[in-house]
Structure formats: C-alpha cells, structure tokens
Amino acid sequence: MKKFRAPRGTHDVLPSEFPLWNRVVHTAEEVCARYGYEPITTPGFEDTELFVRTSGAGSDIVRKEMYTFDDLGGRSLTLRPEATAPICRAYVEHGLHRRPQPVKLYTIAALYRYDTPQKGRYREHHQLSVEAIGSSEPALDAEVIQLYTELLRRLGIESYTIQLNSIGDRECRPAYIERLRAWVADHEADLDDETRQKAEVSPLRIFDTKNRDVSRALEAAPKIGESLCGPCSEHFARVRKFLDAYGVPYELVSTLVRGLDYYTRTTFEFVSNALGAQDALVGGGRYDYLVEQIGGPPTPALGFGAGIERLLIAIQETGAVAEGREIDVFFVCHDDDERREVLPLLAELRRHGLRAELDYAGRSDKGQVTQANRLKAKRIVIVNSVDGLVRERDGRPDWNISLLDRSGFVEKMRA
RNA sequence: GUGGCCGUAGCUCAAUUGGUAGAGCCCCGGGUUGUGGUCCCGGUGGUUGUGGGUUCGAGUCCCAUCGGUCACCCCA
Fold first, then answer.
1. DSSP structure string for A31-56
2. Which helix (H) or strand (E) segment is A306 a member of?
3. pLDDT of residue A216
4. A138-177: per-residue pLDDT in tens?
5. Terminal Cα distance for chain A, rounded
6. DSSP at A63
7. Is the ipTM, as predicted for this complex, more than 0.90?
8. What is each CA distance from A246 to A174, A249, A340, A370, in whole angstroms?
C-alpha cells in the first residue's frame, strides 16, 4: 500500500500547533480591525491572465512559480501566488472605488508558489495581506508600516529591522532605468553574466547580488534615490517624516526593490535574523497603477504581505508557547448505566460553556483517570451510581455530589 | 532549476570490518498507591522512504527516485 504524505512544500497544522497559530491570526485580525481595515476573502484561484499582467511576465512568480491549470471548461486558471492583484480585482469588480476612499482591506489566505522549499519558504503558505486602496497620502504609507510594527509588538517579536526605499513612478523610473542600463553597458567588464542578464529583464534587481566584486562595482552605479522626480521625492520625504512622528525606526536601503512589476514609490521589508536565509517577515509597498492596469480607474494604493509561517518561526525564537484550553470536568464511568446518568449532565455543562469530557477509548477506570490527568482536567467526577466522587486537580479534598440535580450540578462545577 | 548534508517504530535515537532490527519516550493492560501525575511488570507497534543493483547474505556498499534540511535564486 502506498503511503501518502503531504505534497512537497506543504504542511499540516496539527491541533498542538493551533494555539500559537490562532494567537497570530486573532491578533492580526484585532490589530487590523483597530486600524479600520475590513476583512475580505477572494477565491483560491483566478484567471491566469490576472497574475501575468500585474506581476509581470519577467517576474519570478510568472516565469517559474505558478500553479497553472486548465479547468474542464478550458479556462486557464492559477492558484493565487499573491493576494494583492485578486483584492484589487475584487475592488474593481464590485465598484468599491465608489465608496469613500481609501478602502482598507485585509485577508489571511493560503498562497501557492512552485519553489524549492526551505526554512520559512513553502509551496503553500499563508499570508496576512493588508491593502489600503484609493489614496496616495504618505501618511497612509506610514500607517500601514506602523500597523505591522504594532502587530509584531503584540506578538512579542522585537528583533527585526525595517528597510525602506522608494523606487519612483512612471515619470522618473524609465529615465533612471535607461541611465542604469547605460552604466551597465559601460562597465560590463566589472560585472558578471547574471548581472548583465538582470539588467535586461529586471534592472532594478541587479543590486541584489551576493557577488562581492559586482557589489563593489555597483557602488558607483546610479541609484534610484538620486533620480526620483520631484513628486516622488517629496512623497518619500513625507513618508519618512510620518514614520519619525510615529517613532518607527527604519533604515534606508537604496537597493531594496520588489520582485513584482506593479510596485511604485515606497517599498519596504521587515527582516529578522531569526529566519535564516528567508529573512523577510513582511514585504510590501505602493502599487499606484495596479488598479487601472486591471481595468479600474486610476487609483493609488499600497499594501503588504506577511508570512504567517514566518511569524510563527519568529515567535518560537522568542521562546513563547501557547497552551490549549483545559478540560473543566472529566467523567469516569464504569458502564452504560452510569453513562446514561452522565450524558445529560455532559450536555448541560457544555451548554453552559464548560468543557466536559468522558472516555471513548474503552479505558479501564485507572486508564480513564490517567486520561483525565493527561487532559489537565480541573475536576474529575468518578461516577458511582447516582453519586459522583469529585476530585479536584488543585489538591483540595475530594467531595461527593449528586448526579440527580442537574442545575445544581452545573452550579457546583462552575464554582 | 542548481549544489551540500540527511532519511531505522508515532517521537528521539542505537545496531561491532556487510550476517538477517533494538532502546528510551509515547500508547494500552496489570501491580503498588489515597480508584491520581511516582515506581514496578507486561504488551501493541518497523517489508530499515521507495525501486533497482553488487553479494551466499545489505539498515550497513553502488545507482536512481521521492522526501527532509541548509544554501544559491527569489521572496512571505
């Protein structure tokens, strides 16, 4: 018989992992709600063209990471590799641009990328995506970034650095890219093949190299920051001032770019040394042309994606553990007569919000008590006909209780 | 897609120069105990990731493949 395993790069979230998982998810939802972001859910797959057009044919996602398939009706669909384009699609499709702007949305969803798995990188992973659509205000950039610092604070994650940059817009970036390509052409001898190729496909990313010599050579290359047009430059300056006002520390990284084509102006990443090579806790930025690119009105926007699995790794690095909810009452029964006596009480306790259990594994009396202790039951009720011997977990003396008075029973178990 | 390391019970690991699989934990039962977390006894559980090959014989050697892990690439 073939043994099945979770497909490569995917993983199960087991019950023992849920307390921590839920802590992350619930905290994220609460923080988003306080900042005025509303939940939205989009389909797990979309028209392939949506991602190709927005991420860019030259992006790694489109070139080699999409789970694309034809459905039985001949449609080309793709498991969503990122959440921003789908949310913008929904924004346009449902006329959210007619609502008061900006529209602030968030979602927590599984994303799919066909990539080689390693620590913190999975083929199916989950992201908190926060998107603020319909405003170019620098204060909104600062809000989105500060929101995430607040989430990290609530989760107890302190060891990280915020990297910030601006990559310009369609006014200033094309001219800059021309200058950069020209510089690369003049300095080919000092660069490697990889860098020369990147200059063609994705010129902004040439700075992201591990080659020391290339890196040194590139220090003399023109940087986007020096080439920003007036409006972009002013926007970036105001973003920084607002971040300062929030008291959010950041470092300017002139080589920080994004892998997707739709980004403009502000880009940022939070990096953590707890994560190994995949060190980004979150990545995001502005995408002022994305909405109109998919058929909506010109609509400035920004957002970020934060990997839930990476947050979990970072939290575990802090040594934090989350415990599941304890059992309130565990009934120990010998036979069906006693079970019939107990079942109504079990239902009654549960109806009143208590977590009550009994044995379903055919355990011996001793085994049942062991099980109760294992579940950390606060109270064990050892049934003996219509009475029960109540044993307190905290060591207080045992006492007897009647099983006949239901409401009285609930009262005493709540005490 | 590329490279390094790794792959024995649910978990953590052992198995002398290749000789035919074991321990602890967990789980179940029994004993002791205050019908309890200690202790003692017993039990369930593996075609050694999978498929080939070398050999009288392979967990141990070789090849392939799958998976894990770390790194490159890129990112969450």
1. HHHHTT-EE----SEEEHHHHHHHH-
2. strand A301-307
3. 79
4. 999 999 999 999 999 999 999 899 999 999 999 999 899 8
5. 52
6. I
7. no
8. 33, 9, 62, 53
Report CA(A377)–C1'(B1) in Å, whole number. Answer: 52
Taking the model in full, what pTM does it have? 0.91
CA distance A164 to A239: 10
User: What amino acid occupies position A53?
Assistant: R
* The A45-47 sheet, strands edge to edge: A45-47, A76-79, A67-70
Phi, psi of A59 (to 5 degrees): -75, 155
Nucleotide B74's nearest residue (CA vs C1') is A60
Q: Cβ of residue A161 near strand B, that is under 7 Å? A: no
Among all strands, which nt has the closest C1' to A282 (CA)? Answer: B76
Residues 93-112, chain A, CB closer than 7 Å to nucleic strand B: none
Q: What domains lie within chain A, and their CATH numbers?
A: 15-172+228-317 (3.30.930.10), 176-222 (no CATH), 329-414 (3.40.50.800)
Cα torsion A323, A327, A333, A339: sign: negative
A170: left (phi over 0), alpha (psi -120 to 50) or beta: alpha
Q: Which nucleotides in chain B have some atom under 7 angstroms from a protein Cβ?
A: 1-3, 27-33, 35-37, 47, 49, 66-76
DSSP state of A203: G
Nearest nucleotide to A364, CA against C1' atoms:
B29
Angstrom distance, A372 CA to B23 C1': 29
Contact A356, A349 (CB under 8 A): yes
What's the count of helices (H) and strands (E) in chain A, helices before strands? Answer: 15, 16
